Amino acid sequence: MRACSLAFWRRHSAHAVLVAVLAGCIALCSVANAKRVTARRARPASDAASSGRVYEGTALAVRIYFKPLPETMPGHRDDTPAMIALGRRLYHERDLSETRSQSCNDCHRVDQRQSGVDCAPTSMGAKGTRGARNSPTVVNAGFQVMQFWDGRAPDLVEQAKGPLLNPIEMAMGSESDVVDRLRARADYSRDFAAAFPGHAEPVTFDNAARAIAAFERTLVAPARFDRYLKGDTSALTREEKRGLERFVNTGCVACHNSYPVGGRSLQKLGVYHPYRNRKDLGRYNVTHLEEDRFVFKVPMLRNVTLTPPYFHDGTVSTLPEAVRLMGWMQLNKPLSPREVSEIVPFLHALETEHPLRDTEP
Ligand code: HEC
Ligand code: HEC
Questions:
Q1: Which of 47, 180, 207, 260 would you label with 254, given CA atoms 20 to 30 Å apart?
Q2: Can you give the pLDDT at residue 51?
Q3: CB burial class (10 A; 0-12, 13-18, 19+) of residue 194?
Q4: Rounded Cα–Cα distance for residues 92 and 188 (Å)
């Protein structure tokens, strides 16, 4: 499941990769162009941003590292309106928890303009116990190449099966318990038949997960940054452009890149300096490989301003503190409060621009 690029990123120090790629690209420019680039490079980055433009070297890196959010999520082709409607109902269905008290939406709120999280450090399960991890957002989640903090599910379908049976989440006893609950309801028998025509027995555990994933694939939420990447330079404010420069030039972009701005690789948390909470071994719990100790999925940063608290354990309550820790632990850079406050505005440009539609049951 691990894509080649993950192995590539992990073999190199994040910064060395960034420098190498940038150097390669700049070398590709023509001699005349190179002269112009060098002349501009001599100016401090923030000068260019305050003049309303993004520094030329940075603009090149932006084109290499980021892509606008596609309009549809991978795997959407087979999704029908009937399947999406069923998935939306299942997503909000509390009967799918052992105590009939909890739905997906209780931990990943998508109704009432919520951003796909519960804003709690860790979430309370149906039986009143808390897990050890923070709930990530479901909005745009399907653009990532793996799900969960340790990347243990390859896609939304496999992911959806997890919480239903997880004893500290929805706590259903078995797959057949889930199916029994659904078959007991005439409305669901009808909706499954409409969503999965031609299936001799449409109400199955797999089909429930497929329908939930089809609904989640509708949670596509572009931001102003996407308009910027498509050429509308006025979509970002000066502060946000300066933040983008800092984000790129500090080296954050080595891990948080592509259209989700993360979500596409696994990285050690604490490349240079260890994270203070050493209890969660991350990817190691999945693979039992020594090299995977404290390795986590690089989270996507879309809507990160709207999904506090931060980190896999939800113990970092503010975004400036998360950014400061990242600079120190991942890049060996003790960022000053000013540098941190320059990066944060860029993260606001990653907020969903329009409210999600059709998310209520
Ligand atoms: C009790 C709260 C709770 C419930 C209920 C719950 N989740 Fe989650 N969800 C979490 C937590 C915590 C994680 C992170 C767990 C981990 O990484 O090990 C998570 C992870 C996810 C992810 C992965 C996102 C990412 O970026 O990696 C998706 C997608 C998701 N849940 C969807 C669902 C769906 C669909 C349901 C209903 C079938 C559901 N969740 C029910 C708490 C919950
Ligand atoms: C070497 C890879 C790497 C680099 C470089 C990096 N990050 Fe991260 N980032 C991660 C990983 C891995 C996590 C997940 C942390 C965890 O598991 O608790 C993360 C988490 C975050 C979070 C918290 C997200 C959330 O939803 O909880 C923010 C914000 C963040 N990074 C911003 C930045 C910024 C800003 C920079 C540059 C100063 C940066 N990162 C550099 C790998 C990296």
A1: 47
A2: 54
A3: middle
A4: 13
CA dihedral 300, 133, 279, 166 (to 10 degrees): -120
161 Cβ partners below 8 Å, 6+ apart? 175, 205, 209
Q: Whose CA is nearest to atom 39 of ligand 2?
A: 252
- How many residues in the chain? 361
Q: What is the pLDDT of residue 29?
A: 32
Nearest CA to 180 among 209, 212, 204, 210? 204
Distance CA 299, CA 261 (A): 8
- Is residue 169 among the annotated active site residues? yes
Partners of 153 in beta bridges: 147
Domains of the chain, start order = 4-69+222-348 (1.10.760.10), 76-216 (1.10.760.10)
Residues of the chain with pLDDT under 70: 1-54
This prediction has a pTM of 0.89
Q: What angle do the packed helices 186-195 and 81-91 form, to 10 degrees?
A: 140
- Whether the CB of 139 sits within 6 Å of ligand 2: no
Q: What is the pLDDT of residues 279-308, one digit of tens each?
A: 999 999 999 999 999 999 999 999 999 999
